[in-house]
Design goal:
Chain A has 155 residues and is α+β, with helices and mostly antiparallel strands. Chain A has two domains: 3-58, no CATH class; 70-149, Glutaredoxin (3-Layer(aba) Sandwich). Chain A is 43% helix and 12% strand. A four-stranded mixed beta sheet of chain A has the order 2-1-3-4, with helices on one face. In chain A, α2 packs antiparallel against α3 (35-45) and α3 crosses α4. Chain A is elongated and about 50 Å long. The model of chain A has no long low-confidence stretch (mean pLDDT 93). Chain B has 898 residues and is an alpha/beta fold. Chain B is built from 28 helices and 37 strands. In chain B, α12 runs antiparallel to α15 (481-488), α12 (440-453) crosses α16 and α15 crosses α16 (492-504). Classes of the chains: A alpha+beta (155), B alpha/beta (898). Chains A and B meet through α3 and α4 of A and β7 of B. Chain A: [2Fe-2S] cluster binds at residues 75, 80, 116, 120. Chain A: Its EC number is 1.6.5.11. Chain A: This is NADH-quinone oxidoreductase subunit NuoE. Chain A: Keywords: 2Fe-2S, Iron, Iron-sulfur, Metal-binding, Oxidoreductase.
């Protein structure tokens, strides 16, 4: 979708900033926010570029660099930590052969870490784009990744 | 003022204004509540939590900077718990702060340092881990650097940049311990839109933001601080100069400066290096066989006096002409015109206001009776509608632009910009009218046509306060939006919308500058702006008026004090026999009653050989005047040319005698800013040995020529000015203080005038002038197909004599260029930065192309500051018939790729 089409869905009020940014990022190949788009957002909302940037830089869901089609976010808050989140992180890294904040060569996956996703009873938890996967272990992660490679988000 | 209420702080009852800021009230009453993020010039932030207080019947600890005073507040400002919390906050800040105090230029004026001392916090007694991982400093900007390791993330700079300067270049990025500030989309400072005004540095309570040119020059306690007035533009910002050993270390805006309220621009804050330049003139020079040699004062003065006397004797006083200076003081301008009139015996005295606002003086005098800004600068912030036309305010009057931005961003005012270029203010505008160059009368008439048709005019005001309405109406009726669209290229809908915005505003202010005045129809343009204000009753009241922005620091004063060929000081006509008699009695000499020559006329007469000698004080016509090739020939044709200046300018190089003068950092005297405010200078630095003050040089010359002139100082001169100049009647040095006085100020008890024409115009009734559109003198044709206009830029000033000797300003803008539209560039197959030859009927220059959509497709814009590719080699010296101002804003040119 074109940026102008996205912007036209929203009133030019600064309180719409975060929604607009999500909408643009979701519709941008590479799952990120381009500089020229951020400039257009600032112009449209009549707010300084620096303010748009401040919001983008504050929230870890936003990225200014291209990312994989699937952004994996592993929770590292205490309950997940206790339940072995960091082992899961090692698992992800070795299966995908990338480090945190890197993207696989085929452009499919990016690994990020995040704070609490709000489903601590499922710990350890990760999200892929907007879908949550809980009670993770090595086998489950392997299966999820395989399925995504085949284009399926179900386990 | 709001009603007064009673509150209690730590048991003490205090009377305070309802709604006032609690922290400010507490501090004003002697309660030294700490705080780092509170900055009285911006909205409260409540981030640092140091100003926490307890308020009875309210829960928890409350940041007092976010509390508005109301009746009966019972506040605890100090107890053990609060002080413990405060100490902890200071400890946390210190644990994150790079303690580089030994080399910090802010040391001893650092708010965090003061708090650490107050709460006895040192790095070895911290109960927290100390941050030791440092980030790199961003020192990519020419003027300022940011050290995130010293940043306390109070947000004062962020708010100063947006709420005060209206720019919003910086904001926070990151989270938690990694939070810092960053410009634009997180680029290096150098690549951001930051223009280096340094408001953020002035707002920074610690040493996180600092001036690069000041690093290592002096510890804070070594400097002496002296307040004076900025040497650059007509805003007249009050500055505080920090100096050590006769060198300027740093310049700050004075917080209660009447025009600037602490604000400055990049030139005001960082443009002082020229002052210490080794190119300053230190001794008089006499030209012999085409070369300068050093001479004694006595020899140079005697030679000049002898030459002037000979020429006067042989050809008459009118064969000599003088250019006074918009950069010298009021007193010096008065003495200069007195010298020309009383000693030389001619009214041939003018100065470069001729080239910028002669049409303003003529037009507004005709419409209102007084040719100056009707309102004060700071009123702009509170106008409901501002119409800016022919003024790239952001670059030419940067501090005034901040008030316009404040009006839009902080108070919701509507801004209309009418300008052929997409200037910075367009970003803030509700409406932008892009008229074709030189069609201003047409679109202004179009707006007034709509106002009349839609019945938005102020009938009461027109009936009681004006004359000439019917004749005016007949002309305006011909300017339908449809016809105006054809002439100006502005869509009729925009004309109608502009009329509705301006016509319905409660108070509306018109701001204009040289885009309006520098035309053969300059006076007509000015009259049209006056018509618009009269039509809607938007003049003679607070926040509403017609406001020409004057260019140089004392161009208003130079006009006020009679450095003009038709008037003595205070705009008293040389042709009026009573006035002439008054000055003859005061000056004890017979005076000429004929109007003298204006700037361009002087050059023409010199060219013809009728003007034999010229005396030029602090002006540089070899860069500033139109049709420079002609000017050069004219000056070379003189028998005798005397120039006095602080540098050997392009003009001084042609002189027979050169006198070295003082700069404005070195002398006393007064400047009058664009809002008619007379402000006192303070000598900050010692002048180079061998130089003299301008007035002293003129006085010594007068004495050598046998005219009795005996002033001891500039204050003496002002006494005489007050005596003979009604609008300056109440101006005396001892009355000026920090705020100065705004003319008209008739006598000792007159507090001065904030805005003009209240209740009655200076001339009685406001005068409507019927004005028809006349096209510019030179329009594009086959041979010269593009429109050329010239103007100023932020980083340089006038002919560059001062600003181009400042390395940081040169870093921003090192040399000449021409703005060329992407359309024209494509046509010429031109890339950004490539060289182009631009030719007009009068000359040609070669310069670099800057490809930008700021200019209209068929237009070229060239800044005039750069002598090596002087825009004025191209400009047209066709004159406005009334004001004699040349048409610097429209010429036809051709552009070729080199």
């Amino acid at each position: 979708m074109k940026i102008d089409t996205i912007l036209s869905k929203y009133e030019p009020k600064s309180e719409n900033l975060i929604q607009i940014l999500h909408d643009i990022q979701d519709h941008t190949e590479g799952n990120y926010l381009k500089e020229e788009d951020l400039e257009k957002v600032a112009d449209y909302l009549k707010i300084p570029k620096s303010r748009v940037n401040g919001v983008v830089e504050f929230y870890s869901m936003f990225s200014k660099k291209p990312r994989g089609k699937y952004v994996i976010r592993l929770c590292k808050s205490p309950p997940c930590f206790v339940k072995g989140a960091f082992n899961m992180l090692d698992e992800l890294k070795s299966q995908l052969e990338i480090d945190v904040n890197e993207t696989t060569k085929d452009g499919l996956f990016t690994i990020e870490t995040t704070s609490c996703l709000g489903v601590c009873d499922e710990a350890p938890v990760m999200s892929i784009n907007n879908k949550i996967y809980g009670k993770l272990d090595s086998a489950k992660i392997k299966k999820i990744i395989e399925n995504y490679r085949k284009g399926k988000s179900e386990i | 003022m709001n009603k007064m209420v009673k509150i209690t702080i730590d048991g003490k009852t205090i009377d305070a204004e309802e709604g006032a800021n609690l922290l400010q009230v507490a501090r004003d009453n002697g309660f030294d509540i700490p705080g780092l993020c509170y900055y009285d010039k911006v909205s409260p932030t409540g981030a640092c939590r140091l100003c926490l207080v307890k308020i009875k019947e309210q829960k928890g600890l409350i940041p007092s900077c976010t509390v508005k005073v109301s009746e009966g507040l019972n506040v605890t400002a100090f107890d053990e718990e609060l002080e413990d919390v405060r100490r902890t906050i200071v400890e946390l800040l210190i644990s994150e702060h790079k303690l580089g105090c030994m080399t910090c230029d802010t040391a001893s004026e650092c708010a965090l340092e003061d708090l650490a001392y107050r709460y006895n916090v040192t790095v070895d007694n911290l109960p927290f881990p100390v941050k030791t991982k440092y980030e790199s400093i961003d020192d990519s900007s020419p003027v300022l650097a940011y050290d995130p390791n010293k940043c306390i993330v109070c947000g004062r700079c962020v708010k100063a940049c947006y709420e005060i300067q209206g720019k919003g270049i910086i904001d926070f990025i990151g989270r938690g311990i990694e939070t810092k500030i960053a410009p634009d989309l997180g680029v290096d400072w150098k690549n951001s839109a930051c223009d280096g005004c340094g408001e953020c540095i002035q707002a920074c309570p610690v040493g996180a933001l600092f001036e690069i040119p000041s690093v290592g020059k002096a510890r804070k306690w070594e400097v002496e601080k002296i307040e004076t007035i900025c040497p650059y533009c007509g805003v007249g910002c009050r500055i505080e100069v920090e100096k050590k050993d006769n060198e300027i270390v740093r310049i700050n805006g004075v917080d209660d400066g009447p025009a600037n309220n602490g604000r400055l621009c990049v030139k005001g804050r960082f443009g002082y290096e020229y002052e210490m330049s080794n190119k300053r003139l230190r001794t008089p020079l006499i030209k012999e066989n085409g070369k300068f040699r050093e001479a004694s004062w006595d020899e140079a003065l005697t030679l000049t006096a002898r030459k002037f006397s000979e020429i006067k004797k042989n050809y008459g006083g009118n064969s000599i002409a003088g250019l006074s200076s918009a950069r010298c003081t009021n007193e010096e301008n008065y003495i200069f015109q007195k010298f020309m009139r009383a000693v030389i015996g001619t009214n041939n005295v003018d100065h470069c206001a001729r080239l910028c606002h002669a049409s303003t003086v003529a037009g507004l005098a005709r419409a209102f009776g007084s040719g100056a800004m009707t309102n004060s600068i700071r009123e702009l912030e509170f106008a409901d509608c501002i119409l800016v036309t022919g003024s790239n305010t952001t670059e030419t009057h940067p501090v005034i632009a901040t008030y316009i931005k404040n009006a839009v961003l902080n108070h919701g005012a509507k801004l209309i910009v009418a300008d052929p270029r997409k200037i910075d203010l367009v970003k803030y505008a509700t409406l932008w009218l892009r008229q074709k160059n030189g069609t201003d009368v047409a679109w202004l008439n179009g707006i007034m046509n709509v106002i009349l048709n839609e019945n938005l005019h102020d009938k009461e005001f027109i009936k009681n306060r004006t004359e000439g309405f019917d004749e005016f109406r007949m002309v305006v009726e011909n300017y339908t939006p449809e016809r105006v669209e054809k002439i100006t290229g502005v869509p009729k809908e925009k004309i109608i919308e502009a009329a509705r915005i301006y016509g319905t505003a409660k108070n509306a202010s018109i701001v204009f500058s040289m885009g309006i005045t520098q035309h053969t129809t300059g006076t007509d343009n000015v009259l049209s702006t006056a018509n618009l204000a009269l039509l809607t009753g938007n003049v003679g009241k607070l926040y509403s008026g017609v406001n020409p922005l004057r260019g140089q620091n004392n161009v208003q004063g130079a006009c006020d004090l009679g450095a003009l060929p038709n008037v003595y000081s205070g705009y008293q006509k040389v042709t009026d026999p009573d006035i002439k008699k008054k000055f003859e009695e005061k000056w004890k000499v017979a005076l000429d009653d004929k109007v003298g020559l204006s700037v361009v006329e002087m050059m023409n007469e010199a060219h013809k050989g009728n003007v034999k000698a010229m005396y030029i004080m602090g002006e540089n016509p070899m860069v500033s005047d139109p049709n420079l090739n002609h000017v050069e020939e004219a000056l070379k044709n003189l028998d005798f040319l005397v120039v006095q200046d602080i540098f050997l300018t392009e003009t001084a190089q042609l002189a027979d005698v050169v006198f070295p003068a003082y700069s404005s950092f070195e002398k006393s005297g007064t400047f009058t800013n664009t809002e008619r405010r007379i402000q006192l200078l303070n000598p900050v630095l010692k002048a180079p040995e061998g130089a003299k003050e301008d007035w002293e040089i003129v006085q010594e010359l007068a004495l050598k020529m046998g005219y009795e002139m005996q002033y001891n100082n500039q204050s003496d001169i002002m006494e005489e000015i007050a005596d003979v100049t009604p609008i300056y009647g109440g101006i005396h040095f001892y009355r000026l203080g920090k705020d100065g006085l705004q003319w008209p100020c008739k006598d000792e008890n007159d507090p001065g005038t904030l805005f003009l024409h209240k209740g009655k115009f200076s001339r009685g009734l406001g005068h409507f002038s019927p004005v028809d559109y006349i096209p510019p003198a030179e329009l594009p044709d086959k041979e010269y197909p593009y429109i050329l206009s010239t103007g100023r830029i932020l980083y340089h000033y006038h002919t560059g004599t001062m600003s181009r000797k400042v390395s940081v300003l040169n870093e921003y803008e090192p040399g000449p260029y021409a703005e060329i539209s992407p359309e024209l560039a494509a046509k010429l197959n031109l890339k950004d930065g490539e060289e182009v030859r631009i030719t007009s009927r009068r000359g040609a220059i070669v310069t670099k192309a800057r490809i930008t959509a700021r200019v209209a497709p068929d237009s070229v814009f060239i800044p005039f500051h750069f002598a090596e590719a002087a825009a004025n080699r191209l400009t047209n010296d066709a004159l406005d018939p009334i004001a004699k101002i040349p048409e610097l804003k429209v010429a036809a040119c051709k552009v070729e790729k080199m």
